Amino acid sequence: MRKGTARSILMLGIFYFVFLGAEYYFDNMMAFVTDADGVVLAQSYVLGSSVLGFLLYAPMEKMIPAKIKRLFWSVSSAAVILMFFFIKIHSGYGHTLRAGLFLFLLLGYFGSGVHYLVAQTFTAEIETEKSHLARTVGCAYAFGILLQFINNNCISSVAVQVVFLCLAFAVMEGLFMVKAQQVEEQGETHPVIEADGVARKTGMLLIFIVALMTFIFATLDNAVTLVHAGGGADIGQWPRLLLACSGLLAGVLYDIKKGAYQNIIMYCVMMLSTICVVVITCGGPFLLGLVVFYLSAGFFSIYFASSFMRLSYAMKEEKLWAGLGRAVNNLCAVGTASMSLTLLHSPSYVTIVIALVLFAVTSVLIFVYQRSGDQMRWKQENAILSQEAEKTEKILETHKKNEEELLALFSQEFSLTPREGEVLACMLHSEDNVTEMATQLAISRAALYRHISNMNEKTNTKARIGLLQFYYAWMQEK
Questions:
Q1: Hey, which of 214, 299, 415, 471 would disulfide with 332, CB 3.0 to 4.6 Å?
Q2: Which residues neighbour 175 within 8 Å (Cβ) at sequence distance 6 or greater?
Q3: Does 258 have pLDDT greater than 80?
Q4: Which residue has the higher pLDDT, 232 or 333?
């Protein structure tokens, strides 16, 4: 494991631990000053405050002068620790709520920054098979859940639990400052498509998908919680370890082939969760709902976190989009909580119909999002290849080499067939997508992919961008 990856796991994992731990701690303290309904309402307020914090990070980083950034971060860090102790005092509903609002505002601010800095760790390799972005998020999520499990079950004193949360935040803050300084010194390390139409469309689709999925998973969560609260079963803390395992598994699966299967995997998890909601509503086994909930929650958390991080590479406002997944999830969780409870208390047929309609709408959005994402990645690849092509053209002009002769020499050296040579030439001179190139060559998409795959095998490369990058590097050597 690389040093940068380990630090990213530690920093993001501690954030998850502090955020989830703060939410659990705040609810417990509010229970001393209000009733159950008041606790739920207060929780919705602080989660909304965290959303504002996530959104404020990007503009605040632009407004704060570079000379005082570290001072601002240090003061904010001290304020976070101070708010923990104000909540511990819980002198009254108003004082405790205000401390919670300010605490989660700052946690949202730092959370957005942490997601951005973790995303920056993988900018140089995001378009390669070596990217471990989702795996890093999955490991961090599991680490955070494990820390929370230890804090809640192995430490009996509330005061010690708070101290542990504060110490963990201090460590995260130190890692945050070091990484932020490194990113500022390095600057941009990848080409950015500045929020063009495709990127904006893809981003809006992802926001709607996460919103709808949040409602589905919130409904499943509430279905499980209602059984637990009604005395039908005692969940306890141990199932949270299943949540950590699902996060780890999701991270590994989502990184396969640069996230090529991420959407289809999440689609299957969503389908399973929808079926589970229907089964529980009809009086099905509670244990099934419990297992599916914890498995799906882990997959969903890694999905929206890693998806928005990957999307940030194509956006002008990277600092805003990198952490937007958690903000959208928190906002929708607050906004849909009462609706999901109302749905569960409705007649079974109403719940089933609405669940199936939501599933169908989300399925269509995922399909459109996949196509839009493919188009966006194609533009990103073309941006990378255009830079390399410009370098190669300068070299060709300097050495007065003929590109057709070099292409023929390349085909001969790597045993390309005449048709493969035509496909390679088309890819070199066209920014069209796969369907348009196939039409231009008068072949099917499947045949085009087969020719590319054959050339990948002969040149020991992966995917279209790998083949073209290899060709440009070979040309420069000649």
A1: 214
A2: 7, 10, 11, 14
A3: no
A4: 333
**Burial class for 306, CB neighbours closer than 10 Å (0-12, 13-18, 19+):** buried
Residue bearing tokens 């499990």? 149
Least confident stretch, 161-165, 254-258, 301-305, 360-364: 254-258
Render pLDDT for 338-381 as a digit per residue (tens, 0 to 9).
777 677 677 777 777 887 888 888 888 888 888 877 777 666 66
CA distances (Å), 100 to each of 50, 111, 198, in order? 10, 16, 39
Q: What is the DSSP string of 153-204?
A: HT---HHHHHHHHHHHHHHHHHHHHHHHHHHHHH---S----S-HHHHHHHH
pLDDT of residue 336: 74
Return the exposure string of 374-406: e unless at least 16 CB atoms fall within 10 Å of the residue's CB, then b. Answer: eebbbbbbbebbeebbeebeeebeeeeeeeeeb
Query: Distance (Å, rounded) from C-alpha 100 to C-alpha 105?
Result: 8
The 3-state DSSP class for residue 97 equals: helix
Residue 237 Cα distances to 136, 149, 165, 243, angstroms: 24, 7, 18, 11
Q: 3-state DSSP: the chain helix, strand, coil percent, rounded to 5?
A: 85, 0, 15
Q: CA triplet 194, 127, 465: central angle to 5 degrees?
A: 100
> What is the b/e burial string over 106-132, where b = at least 16 CB atoms within 10 angstroms of the residue's CB?
bbbbbbbbbbbbbbbbbbeebbeeebb
User: pTM score, two decimals?
Assistant: 0.78
Sequence-distant (≥ 6) Cβ neighbours of residue 145 within 8 angstroms: 16, 17, 20, 240, 241, 243, 244, 247
The span from the CA of 355 to the CA of 361, in Å, is 10
Q: How far apart are CA 163 and CA 165, in angstroms?
A: 5
